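hiii so um. not sure if this is the right channel but i have a protein structure encoded as tokens and i wanna go backwards to a sequence. like what aa goes where. can anyone help
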């Protein structure tokens, strides 16, 4: 009996693993052999399913179109905001320009007044240049045909010799526009 050795636990474990490895394909074949029942759908059920699929496709296409429309609208609004950036600031500066023009219209009687007027002129020139760099321009009015989108008629006078009807004959307050948008219409006198 001393010649016989007891199998070690490692040998037993290896034998069990080998048996499982040979049994696994047999079990898989047994599972695969089971036939699946055939699904039979009536024409009515197929039609219902096709209609549902069409409805889902339609909803998907509509939702996708809506997303594209929202994106296009957003891009358009963003481009408009960028284009007219600074509009409110420009509107707020226009009264300052008017006051500087009024100050420049006053005659200086002494040297101190003349120096002050030169300082106002320099300020006016810099401000006007800054507005032009930011696409804020004066609306041409004097001698132009009256345009209600750019001019605001505050008075009308009879047509005199050398004037044509519906023409601006006097500008009471300058008008300004930012690119193609009117910030403030020119207040004008129109010949009728």
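sure thing!! here u go:
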């Amino acid at each position: 009996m001393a010649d016989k050795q007891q199998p070690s636990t490692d040998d037993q474990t290896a034998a069990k693993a080998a048996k499982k490895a040979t049994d696994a394909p047999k079990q898989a074949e047994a599972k695969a052999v089971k036939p699946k029942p055939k699904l039979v759908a009536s024409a009515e059920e197929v039609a219902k399913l096709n209609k549902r699929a069409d409805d889902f496709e339609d909803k998907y296409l509509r939702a996708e179109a809506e997303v594209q429309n929202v994106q296009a609208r957003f891009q358009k609004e963003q481009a408009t905001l960028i284009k007219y950036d600074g509009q409110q600031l420009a509107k707020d500066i226009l009264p300052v320009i008017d006051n500087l023009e009024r100050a420049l219209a006053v005659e200086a009687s002494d040297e101190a007044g003349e120096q002050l007027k030169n300082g106002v002129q320099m300020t006016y020139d810099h401000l006007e240049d800054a507005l032009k760099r930011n696409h804020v321009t004066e609306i041409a009015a004097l001698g132009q045909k009256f345009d209600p989108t750019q001019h605001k008629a505050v008075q009308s006078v009879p047509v005199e010799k050398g004037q044509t009807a519906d023409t601006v004959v006097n500008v009471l307050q300058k008008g300004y526009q930012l690119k193609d948008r009117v910030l403030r219409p020119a207040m004008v006198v129109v010949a009728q």
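oh and The chain has a mean pLDDT of 84.
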